Amino acid sequence: MPKKAQDGLLHGLGKDKVRVDYVTVDGRETYWYIEWEGALAAVQRRYQEAQSDAQREKLASYFAIVACPTCGGKRLKPEILAVTVNDRSIHDVTEMSAADSLAFFDSLAFHGSEEHIAGPIVKEIKARLKFLVDVGLDYLTLERATATLSGGEAQRIRLATQIGAGLMGVLYILDEPSIGLHQRDNERLIATLERLRDLGNTVIVVEHDEDTIRSADFVVDMGPGAGEHGGEIVAIGTPDEIMKADGSLTADYLSGRRRIEVPEKRRKPRRGSLKLTGATENNLHNVTLEVPFGTLTVVTGVSGSGKSSLVTDTLAPALANRVNHAHRRTGAYKKITGLDKIDKVINIDQSPIGRTPRSNPATYIGLWDDIRALFASTQESKARGYSPGRFSFNVNGGRCEACKGDGQIKIEMHFLPDIYVPCEVCGGDRYNRETLQVTYRGKNIAEVLDMTVEDALAFFENIPGIKRKLQTLFDVGLGYIRLGQPATTLSGGEAQRVKLASELQRRQTGKTFYILDEPTTGLHFEDVRQLLIVLQRLVDAGNTVLVIEHNLDVIKCADRIIDLGPEGGERGGTVVARASARRRSPRWRAATPAPREEDAGGRPAVGSAGRGIFSTACWCFAAISRNPLYRVGGTCDNARFADGGESMREEGSIQVAETAAGNRHVVRGIVCALAGGICWGFSGTCAQLLMNDYGAPATWITCVRMVIAAVFFLFLTAVRNWRDLVAVFRDWRSLAQIAAFAIFGVLLTQLSYLNAISYTSAGVGTTIEQVGLVLIMLYVCVRAKRLPRAREAAGLVFALGGMLIIATQGEIDQLAIPAEGLAWGLVSAVALTFYTLMPVRVLKKWGSMLVTGLAMLFGGSAASVVVQPWTMPVNLPLGGIAALVAIVIVGTLGAYMLYLQGVNDAGPVKASLLCCVEPVSAMILALAWLHTPVSGWDLAGCALIVIMIFLVTEREPKTEQAAEGEGALADAYDDPPLFAGRASVLGYYTSRPATRDDFERATALLDVGHQTFAELGIDEGRSKKYPSARRLMHSIKNGTTHVIEDAHGRMIAMFAVSFSPDKNYERPIDGAWLTDTSAEPQPYAELHWVAVDYPARRRGVGMFILDKADQIARAGGRSSIRADVYELNGPMQNLLEKHGYERCGTITIKDVFGRVKHRVGYERMLR
User: By C-alpha distance, which of 678, 670, 755 is closest to 920?
Assistant: First the structure.
């Protein structure tokens, strides 16, 4: 934009007026002249005229605090700054930290009359600076604005002021002064409090810190619980007397009767990491932060070391801007990688959940909407015609109009804080008399509001939706708060746990990044334990949790620790050490860029000022490394969240996570599929041995191996995650799918395969079974309306050719196997098709181990009932028992787990192709073990199969569209589905109605669509893009907008299907619609807002959207579906026509500005 135009937009045009032309609603063209004040002046004026805090807060996002261009932020005139002491101006001194400033004044030396003048002043300055250092604030600069201080810092500054006063006989009351303090600084604080006591004062401290409690002269313990369960003095006396008291949680933790245990296992990072490089905000010195996904990572360090600057000021806003599409100021950094594996960033702080008494825990977590709907569904409400809105205290109708639903009246006090008194009309109940007459189980709506969470949990135990949300509040330790308790009365810790409860009751994607800044502030030992359970629960779901913390109990439970320091202020801002909790003894790597002095043992030397503070993590891990429970960590407990891995390499003495090239989940799937094929080949050889040498029937082997394998699978599932085992039996749809998979996939495959190899050999029977690959490919091509790419088609030809050569032994004109073996082999091929295609969706939901175990259980039970293997006279010698055990462990447990994991990771078609290695392994094992002869034709067939493996496993080159898309997200689609459109058919993509949580991502997808229009040369002709944010949110609320997610839960596309009449379709069209536009009821549905992210294009997403739109329209009782497309939008027109839409003509549309637009109308008949 030219400089003159930019200045005009920002700063205005002065007295010059601008002509504005517009068309009125009735079509008249008119104009007027206005003076343009400029964007900057307009924003400033609206900020000053704002009537509400919300408007002022929104406009404040356009402001930034910058240094004054005249003085450079020094605040003083040049002549004042010219006055120096020891070559330092007053501004230079205030820029120093308290510790550096104290050293500066210690170095001053005066003589003669200067000593008489400056001596007393310097002595007073040094004394006050010493007070700041003593209370742990040596890192603060003297010019630090008080508005930027934390609550603990401000309290300690006031404490330092009182120390300087030197008063005696004063009662000091401090509320948790240890907030935000490192253990080293906490010792300084305790020494300061003891100094106040020694001066003859009384110090009362409200505190949860263990060190402070143990240092006290007298302790009063309140309890025994919280809320209604507390309010009593449980124990009183010295710390030693308190520890002997019974019924006190504080005494139990102090005495060691209760403790927060060290985790038995640590999580191994398997999905890569988020890496922030080159952070330089405030005192940070080019810091690099790496957070492994799927772990609980804790950032530690002394006060002022740069933790908040790194996480709160730099990482959190950067992630919010890049992932949530927010617009927040971000601290300086170079780059950030790994964003493609995050779908949402949530910063859970201790800020209030609401600014007014109307906000309460029930409204915040969405519980109140369900309760209002429940009251509206009662017979009394229906008889009176009450809707859920009647039970809202925010709108007219059911609320008390005297207090406007607040339950209290605000009385403004001049020169004093405002006070609130109960409403005299409703008595604090918030509702009018008619609304309170409606009851549910004997309680009206006001009485429900007054319930505690614990009481409400028992009251609504039969309402699953309400009980689930109440349970999350109870799980985070808030069973004592009331549902209607005003948000303004909640403490910071309570507000934070309400936010955690709100997240726990949401649908977990396993790819959310949580950030918490000192969540243990104000929490008791027991509350910390409950908080850790919640955090571990979030991580167990596959999410990533990053915590800034000083609490040692939280630190020792972390999977990874990053310690900043070594001191506060300018002497901090570097990563002193980082530790991976994967070994018994921690391994550390220094990350300070400059070389450091070392002691005789090779450890970084620490001076007297920093002695003993190498890191909190060192103290913590030194304590727990001797604990026998501290072992090499495990993986995520839920197999269905394991969607990718990262390579680990040794560098020095620490294991560093490195991002692997490409998608490791696909590589893992290839390896698993190959290993599964080899295991199945081994299984066939063992089965052939049992049938031919020991006379065991195929049906008996099938029943026994499946039942035994089912027991093993379900036992492992119960050990790993018993909650999934319980939950799957409540999901009848999943159970039905697994049962069908068990009968037509697992059981039929086993029986037909074993009967096939009983007539032939293991290699030949396995070869015929792989004919199912043809059926799989035919199914894919027909459903997806696509042709296979050259490499996959060639791989299929090589696989079938190799199997044909093995089966015919070179005599193509006749098969070299019995007809019975061929028949059973073809049945097993059909069963293999079912086995590959049926479980795709349920695998994504429940994981391969649980699905396989239940399928084995259902199939084995059904076969056992029919076959009754216990009636068969089978006597196996020791060798036969060994072969049966090998079949169960290797050929069943190993093979099925590996193959299904391959299907889950690499896709059904690719996994089934790779399992063609099965006849190769079967022939090799049969030759080595059973001495089955192998001919030259067998070797030739095996060679063709090996060539197929190389063709299938070679990575596809990136498409041009993916290369031009956003780099990080394009990499996530580097390994597309095997066939274009295959993914949409086999469950790689899923569709669901959009929710409010999807709003920002949906807006970003629409922006991608507008950008595509611009690239196609389409002039949308609107300064405000369509649809507007309000229209989109309204559509989401009505359930007409749907989103598309890939197999990894990433939202890649969106669309909308509407059933309300579209006015554009009532306009003249130079053709004819397939249905009558004026018919009643409306015969057609409308397709709108199709938007697909760049990296996901040309992968069958468009066809998947159109299929889903057809299903939605049919479900809504419509006989057709319509769409209108810009004339220049050729790609969308081609897609519609390919899917069966008929071009009906061109619609002429005139917008509100009188401009004429042309769109092409399409319609598809559904019946």
Answer: 678
